[in-house]
Structure formats: structure tokens, C-alpha cells
Design goal:
Layout (H helix, E strand, L loop, with lengths): L18 E3 L2 E3 L9 H9 L10 H24 L4 H18 L9 H6 L3 H6 L6 H14 L2 H4 L3 H13 L2 H9 L7 H20 L3 H8 L2 H9 L6 H15 L2 H9 L2 H10 L9 H17 L3 H9 L2 H11 L4 H12 L3 H9 L3 H8 L12 H21 L3 H9 L3 H33 L6 H28 L3 H13 L4 H13 L7 H19 L2
Antiparallel strand pairs: 1-2
């Protein structure tokens, strides 16, 4: 269907419309339960097009749409095998759907639109036999839910989205995707618009992110879409929507994991293990894929799937290839190894230490993105976190010895680097503490929790991880390492007391998000470090 040059339909009047209910028509009320006699009276007082969008004008649009919908369904039922008989009514219905897009100019009228019971009629058309009509409806829903349209109209937006959910819009939108072919430009655009509509609904009502995954096969469709080798706009958008669905939902993370989703995302990422994206859009898509992977690695069962799918090995390969995904691979490894010893063990077993410590020493590939100071800082913090996770996950045996030996080789250069980082982050935190104290003097109230969070943002958490790593090294009782640490502390006019103070603040602020037992174990470990540093 050509959507650019549709012939305009002249306004018509006629008998009271019939209602299509339960497989038949009756004339007791308006179509779909709407009182069209009232709307007819409105229409008769307003001839011509819509000039000002108000309640009266909206009712006129709805009346005209419902009539064309009724005519189309009636003609299709009467002549099911003769498309030429209902072709004109299809074109007219298309035009009416296009006219309804005017309603996006008055989102404050959405509650009245819902009250008129028009939403069921619109949503049902997503299953229309003519796929062009379904495409029209997708475009309409995207316009009505557009973020710019709904700005400052929170309550009307919520009412519309609730009505869409109640009338199975999520299910019908996703079912319709399976009918669409990306070999057709219009249908390709409709896929994009479908994803946009779902994203718009999530913006209005965040619970939609889990609802759409509970009620539909959207996760499975998205997983299949990102695994297609060729890059295009829909693949990029699919990766973005998948990341949105996963970012704040443990339920969706687990659900996709059960669909072999960890392996699926790894397959999509593996396409870039030895090549870089060819455009900024493709680069954004790759970042979305890594966002998906990191979200998936939150539940412990998905960490196990990551290991079984050789995710650790893939991330090391990506790092060794020194392509643009280098930093993202470090981030994924950090997520995989946090509080999960089996991933740490696998990392050591497949010779990941050499690659990780090259990054720790600052030997990172230089690209346009890597040259940004913020990127280098994020990478630095990630690799510090990764090494802290290795120490936490590998507590004994030959793997532990291999990890510790890295800090002895080449005349303890890794300890030199660790102390350099300690000094830099310590200075940053001290400067922030002084700034906060000055604010206190200026009578700007700030509670302890807010002060602590400000210091975390300034680099305190990374400083704490460095101090914990120093605690591991000191507790190993390796004399060469201890001697090097003490020498460097003196050179920087620091003492072991400074490190102990950082550890004590960390100890006192360990949360119990993973349960009281985990908190107690973590605090006990820090207490041992503090005690070891107190030994002469």
C-alpha cells in the first residue's frame, strides 16, 4: 500500500452504525460499545477537517474511524474471497488511522480517548488480515506514546498505557512482528516502530519491561535478531531494547539465561573478536551487546552458563586482539568474576593473568575512544576491580601462588604500579573530603551517608579495592613484597596506618545486600588485613 498519496475520503453521513460483537453485528449502540449517536451529533455540527484539537474534534475523529472500521469488517465478512470488494474500504480505513495521529497533538485528551473505548478498536487492528493496516496502527501507537508528546503529561500517559496493556497491546505488537519481513522497507520500518512503541511504554510505566517478557516472546525474538550477522538499524535497536529489558530486572536476566541467552549474546559479541565496528552506530550496538552481557552476568546461574559457553576465553581473545571491544571485555570479565570463584579459577587456568596485568600496567591499545581520559579512568578502575576479584576468588593453592608471583616479577613493578594508583586515588579522596568539610563550615547540611557517597564518586571505592589488594599482598608474608610496600609508603610520606584507615572505613560500610553471613565473612577478612598490617 502506498502511504504517501492516499486519496482523501469525503465526509459521509449515514444510518446509525452497527456494532460487531461476538461474531455479528447489532444496531443497539455504537461500534465497540461507543455511543455513536452522540458522536454523530457532534459530527453534524462540525463539517470539514479538524482545525482545533479539543474534545469535540477528537470525538469526531473517533466517530469517523469507527465507521470506516465497521465498514471494512462488514465488507470483509460479506466478501471474504473477493479482495476487490473491500479494497476501497481498506484505503479509507488507512486514511482514518493516519488522521488519528492528530491526537498526538493533544495528549491531555488521552483519558477521554480511553473513556470512549476506542483503544480496543485500535489495538485489535494489529491482527488485521491486511498487514498494511497493522503497520498503520503500529505507527499510530508509536506517535501517541512518543516521549516528546507525553512530556509533562504523566497522568494522561499512564492512563493510555494502562489501557493499551489491558487490551493486550503488548501481545499483539509482538505477535505482529513475526508477520513482518525485513525484505520489505515498510515492514522493516514497522519493526523499528514496534520496538519504539514498547520502549515508549516502558518509559511511562517501567513495569512494562517485565510484563512484556512475561506475556510475549519478545526476548526470544530479540535474541534471534542480534545473532544475525549483517548490521542494520533494527539490529542496533534490538540490542538497545534488550539492554533496557535486562538492566533493572533480575527476572528478565534469569528468563533470558534460561533461553540459552548467555550463549546467544556471546555469539553476537564474537563477531567482533577480531574486527572493529565500521560505523558509530555499529559501535553503539556493540556497546549495547556488552551491556546485555554484563546485566546477564548478575545472577550467579548465568555466571556458570558464561563459563560453560567459554565466555572467559572469548573475552581474553578479544583483549589479545586489541580491538575496540577491549575495554568492554574487561568489564564483562569483572562482572563474571565478582563474587564467583569458578570464573576466577577459569581465568587463571586459561592464562588470563598475563593479559590482565598488561592492562593493569597501562599497556592498553590506543584508539580514538581509548584516548579519552574518562575512558582510560574507567578502564583503570575496572582492571583494579578485576584483580581484587581474583584475590577474593582464589584463596589458596597453585593458582594463588601464580597470582601472587605476578607482583614479584620484574622487580615488583606491579607493586610499584599499585602504589602509584594508591597515591593518586588517595589524593583525590583527600581533596574531596576537604571540599566536603569546607561545605560543612559554610553551613550546607549533608548527612554522613551523603558524604560517604560523594567520596565514593570521587574514587573512594577504587581506593578501597587497592587497599584490599595491598592487604592480600601483605598477608602473604612475602618479605620482598612487604619490603617493597613499606619502601614505597615511605617515599610517598604514607604509613601502614593510612592503609588501615582506608580498610577500616571500608569495613564499617560493608552492606548486607548479599545477606548477613556474607557481610560477616567480608568484614572478618578485612579485620585480618588490618591485624596483619599492625604486626611489626
Amino acid at each position: 500500500m502506498d502511504h504517501r498519496n492516499k486519496r482523501r475520503r469525503e465526509e459521509e453521513t449515514g444510518a446509525l452504525p452497527l456494532v460487531y460483537e461476538n461474531g455479528g453485528f447489532n444496531g443497539e449502540s455504537g461500534f465497540g460499545g461507543i455511543d455513536l449517536s452522540l458522536l454523530e451529533a457532534v459530527e453534524s455540527s462540525h463539517n470539514g477537517g479538524v482545525e482545533v484539537l479539543d474534545l469535540r474534534a477528537m470525538k469526531k475523529l473517533v466517530l469517523s474511524f469507527e465507521r470506516r472500521l465497521r465498514d471494512n469488517l462488514e465488507t470483509r465478512m460479506k466478501y471474504p474471497e473477493q479482495p476487490d470488494k473491500f479494497a476501497d474500504s481498506e484505503v479509507e480505513l488507512h486514511e482514518e488511522i493516519e488522521r488519528l495521529k492528530i491526537l498526538a497533538g493533544g495528549p491531555e485528551l488521552y483519558p477521554e480517548l480511553v473513556a470512549l473505548n476506542t483503544v480496543p478498536s485500535i489495538v485489535d487492528l494489529l491482527g488485521h488480515d491486511n498487514i498494511d493496516i497493522a503497520i498503520d496502527v503500529v505507527g499510530l501507537l508509536m506517535d501517541l506514546t512518543d516521549e516528546d508528546v507525553l512530556e509533562d503529561n504523566d497522568e494522561p500517559a499512564r492512563i493510555l498505557v494502562d489501557a493499551l496493556i489491558e487490551n493486550n497491546a503488548l501481545e499483539l505488537l509482538v505477535q505482529n512482528i513475526s508477520r513482518l519481513s525485513e525484505s520489505d522497507p515498510d515492514e522493516t520500518a514497522a519493526i523499528y516502530n514496534t520496538l519504539a512503541t514498547i520502549e515508549n511504554m516502558i518509559e511511562v510505566k517501567p513495569a512494562v519491561a517485565e510484563l512484556v517478557c512475561e506475556r510475549t516472546k519478545l526476548l526470544r525474538w530479540l535474541l534471534g535478531r542480534i545473532k544475525i550477522r549483517e548490521f542494520d538499524g533494527n539490529k542496533q535497536y534490538a540490542s538497545e531494547i534488550l539492554a533496557i529489558l535486562l538492566q533493572n530486572s533480575t527476572a528478565n536476566q534469569k528468563r533470558l539465561g534460561q533461553m540459552n541467552g548467555v550463549d546467544g549474546v556471546l555469539q553476537a559479541v564474537a563477531m567482533y573478536k577480531s574486527r572493529d565496528p565500521k560505523s558509530s552506530d555499529e559501535e553503539e550496538m556493540l556497546e549495547n551487546l556488552f551491556d546485555c552481557l554484563c546485566c546477564l552476568l548478575m545472577p550467579v546461574e548465568n555466571k556458570e552458563r558464561f563459563i560453560k559457553s567459554e565466555g572467559v576465553e572469548l573475552m581474553i581473545i578479544i583483549m589479545k586482539q586489541k580491538k575496540s571491544a577491549y575495554g568492554s571485555a574487561i568489564r564483562a570479565l569483572d562482572f563474571a568474576m565478582t563474587k564467583y570463584p569458578p570464573a576466577c579459577e577459569r581465568f587463571v587456568d586459561v592464562l588470563g593473568l598475563k593479559t590482565a596485568f598488561a592492562a593493569f600496567m597501562g599497556k592498553i591499545p590506543l584508539t580514538k575512544k581509548n584516548k579519552r581520559e574518562s575512558y582510560q579512568e574507567e578502564l583503570e578502575e575496572r582492571i583494579i576491580s578485576l584483580i581484587a576479584s581474583l584475590f577474593a576468588g582464589i584463596t589458596r593453592g597453585s593458582r594463588r601462588e601464580r597470582l601472587l608471583s605476578k607482583f614479584v616479577e620484574n622487580e615488583c613493578e606491579k607493586i610499584d604500579r599499585l602504589m602509584e594508583l594508591y597515591s593518586r586515588y588517595s589524593d583525590r579522596v583527600k581533596n574531596e573530603t576537604e571540599r566536603l568539610n569546607k561545605l560543612e563550615l559554610d553551613d550546607l547540611e549533608m548527612d554522613e551517608e551523603e558524604q560517604y557517597n560523594r567520596k565514593l564518586e570521587a574514587g573512594l571505592y577504587t581506593l578501597q579495592l587497592i587497599a584490599v589488594t595491598l592487604g592480600h599482598l601483605w598477608s602473604s608474608e612475602h618479605q620482598q613484597m612487604r619490603g617493597r610496600i613499606e619502601l614505597l609508603l615511605r617515599q610517598q610520606r604514607l604509613t601502614k596506618e593510612d592503609v588501615k584507615d582506608v580498610l577500616l572505613e571500608y569495613h564499617d560500610n560493608i552492606g548486607d545486600v548479599d545477606g548477613p553471613e556474607d557481610k560477616e565473612r567480608a568484614q572478618t577478612r578485612i579485620q585480618k588485613f588490618i591485624a596483619a598490617l599492625s604486626d611489626l
